[in-house]
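Question: what's this shape?

___
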Amino acid sequence: LAESPENFLSTVQIGITLIGILTGVFGGEAIGEAISSWLQGVFPALSASFELVGKPRPYSVVIGSTLAVALITFLTLIFGELVPKRLALRNSEDIAGVVAVPMTWLARIAAPGVWVLARSTRLVLRMLGMGKDESASVTEEEIRMLVAESHEAGVIDAHERDMMNRVMRLGDRTADSLMTPRNRIAWLDANAEPERNFAVMREHEFSRYPVYRGSDQDIAGVLEVKSLVTRMGGHGENLFQALRETLFVSESTHAMKLLEIFREEQQSMALVVDEYGEIRGLVTISDLMGAVVGRLQAVENTDEDALVVTRADGSLLIDGSLPVEELREVLGAELPDADEGDYHTLAGLCIYYFGRIPQAGEFFDWACWRIEIVDLDGARVDKLLLSRVGDEGSDDIVG
């Protein structure tokens, strides 16, 4: 039945239609006559006739037929439609198991009629200029609604809901929305003293580092700490002897394509470049994982390191580099034009609204949140304070 839903539904529709017709023809007449006889016995005056469609009709017959139709309709809706559907929704698997065998035999018996109906339907649609429906049977928006309803019903928890939503958004994200920006990359310098490079590795403790010679205009390769440990005994002169070739990807590369590139190239890190060949940032396989499971915060991180800090008054102190995907989950609201790539971080949202680099102390109201710039690091929006104000939907710059 599951493999041929069209035949199954046609069989059910034939059964429903036949039952409705037979009930109306035979049940309606019998019940109508019974009610008419009872009315004539209780109210003899209703035996009188009147002209209806050119024929004399007793009042009792007309009233009896009307009440019979109303009664049959009521009972059909309650016991034939609403109650069975409610029971099926509450115990779908159990009821499906019970009715599967009878429905299979009924489908086989009704197969000739179903075939005729299916062919006739397709012929009529073809005559109307409507060929085969090639549209998706399930849309992404329907899946999102199903996930939201499942969460409200308690079937899935909030973390599962968020992860499913992230998975569906992953295909729309590009490398520039996933990357670590250029000014935050931990570089090693092949021209620098070994101790300086070891200091960088002790500070960041990454498994891989991009290496340049003097500046990021001259990329030397990628240093893998694991391979470094296996081939050297702590001597700096062997630090950059076995660098891996650097992988470059475009800032517009979509996340799923990026995953495919990592798999084909057997690499887990790439430098992101723009159309002019300038380095924009660095993206890793961990960034892709984080886009699905959420940011993995280090245990030793303090409030100063955290991207989002909830204060005692309920306001949020947020780092400007917080990605819009995580900002959506924090605020529980959609962000204007974020899907069009106008910005990828909370700092980008502020610049998008002001149309310039804002100053510390400036703020604007948006979607029941007041977003205030707290601190800048040069031209970079570093820290912002978000607090709930006003009615949802306000998005005016006010300060």
Observations:
- DSSP finds 13 helices and 14 strands in the chain.
- Residues 298-302 have pLDDT under 50 and may be disordered.
- The chain has four domains: 5-127, 140-170, 175-293, 308-388.
